[in-house]
Design goal:
mainly alpha; 5 helices
Length: 119
Amino acid sequence: MKLSEAMMLGATAHGVDGTTWEGCLLGVSVKAVGGNNTFNLEALARWPWIRKKVQSPEHLGYTGASCSAETLLSGLAIRVMSGEVTLEQVVDWVRSVEPVEEKYDRALQDTVPVVPTAV
């Protein structure tokens, strides 16, 4: 599942609390796929691209600098809680920076069964 999809699902089901690992935007995303996000470790395993530097979203209150998506999402969780930005705005931004296609979660790659097709 893409991070943007998991984020919308998790935030809707669990709410956002940017003051905790489990309640932040990454934490609720991990919860949506059945995990537990201690210190962002599971989020980093599932969506490793969040370590990469991205351009800060000026329309969401950040100006000019670039840093990791993980760092930006931590700050954006507080802005969602305070009402400065909406969850939908953040999810739209995540869609704009996440990889176009993810076949399945990286953490699950070794457990996805391969089913042979008949020839």
